[in-house]
């Protein structure tokens, strides 16, 4: 007779034997079997023990056949196959609590109707809350775009995060430089400011929604086609509604005069702008908001240095016929020839792709700062223009 030493529990683990377990009797020629008195486990002492297995080696397990059960027996699983969605019921509870909160506020403020109307009003509010919540029991899904009957679907991804955007010109080389440049500027913004832009977007002016982007970087390519009247009407609406477009002729290195008059890119820009009512422009004044929207700047270099950054003239004559006017003091148009995107462009390893002209590390740093100031200027408006009033405010305060 061997006393129980370690027995299997319900989880299949060896554990201390309970008080109900009895010693295992071993007899010559008799194979012991598992019973309530002798659960499976180890019997004996540390000096010697035997194992009483739950199954013999020749035994197999078969699935239970419900047909062998008595008639009327119900078979049920321990748990449901699918999770139970509590969201609709929680929304209903929240709606009821909101209705009760509204009633409490009305009662405290003394605006609750008379006693005869309180109970019907309460019941009506609760019923409306339940109906409103119960009608939404199906999982909500965000609308991804119009149906086929309404036209092509609109890509709303630009509304989910702030993204810098560039105009796709059709020139693969120019478009790739623009993308790499905005990738570099986005990373610089994320490392130096609180803004963490999403991946840059390439925009088709003829079909993509432009309202999602604070400004568009438009590199001028001689090989690109001139947009048609319908496309320019979309551009005109974008500028009229507060959007900013940065035109970059990228020709500062090709002309001693800055490449803003006789280069092929400059002539192509003139043709593009001929379809818009552009306000008077001027080089960025020394006291312009762009010089201090984030960094303090006195010039606006890109890959090249020396070219001016042209913006809408401050204090220009107002005209209802000119749609492209500044919104909140932000110029709707900027023109440069310094090739900003090439200065910002980085490869997959984060290294600069194009050298600056002249080769000066500080010029590349300044070009990134130019991009940061443009981004902050277009995103936040002209709030820093109020700095011009600081001396007068301090004088009034007697400081």
Can you describe this structure?
Helix 1 (87-109) runs antiparallel to helix 2 (115-134). With 399 residues, this protein is of the alpha/beta class. The model is unreliable at 136-149 and 317-326 (pLDDT under 50). It is 30% helix and 11% strand. It has eight helices and eleven strands. The radius of gyration is 38 Å and the shape is elongated. The protein starts with a strand and ends with a helix. The strands form two sheets. It has a seven-stranded mixed β-sheet with strand order 6-5-7-8-11-10-9, covered by helices on one side. It has a four-stranded antiparallel β-sheet with strand order 2-1-3-4, with no helix packed on it. It has helices at 87-109, 115-134, 172-192, 229-240, 264-273, 340-344, 361-380, 390-396, and strands at 4-8, 14-15, 41-45, 48-52, 165-167, 201-203, 215-219, 244-248, 281-283, 310-312, 333-336.
Total number of beta strands: 11
Beta-strand portion reads 5-15%
Average pLDDT number: 81
Helix fraction? Answer: 25-40%
Structural class: alpha/beta
Number of helices: 8
Instruction: Return Rg in Å.
Output: 38 Å
Taking the sheet with the most strands, its summary is: 7 strands, mixed
Poorly predicted segments = 136-149, 317-326
Lateral strand order in the biggest sheet: 6-5-7-8-11-10-9
What's the shape? elongated
In angstroms, what separates the terminal alpha carbons? Answer: 102 Å
Order of helices and strands: EEEEHHEHEEHEHEEEHHH
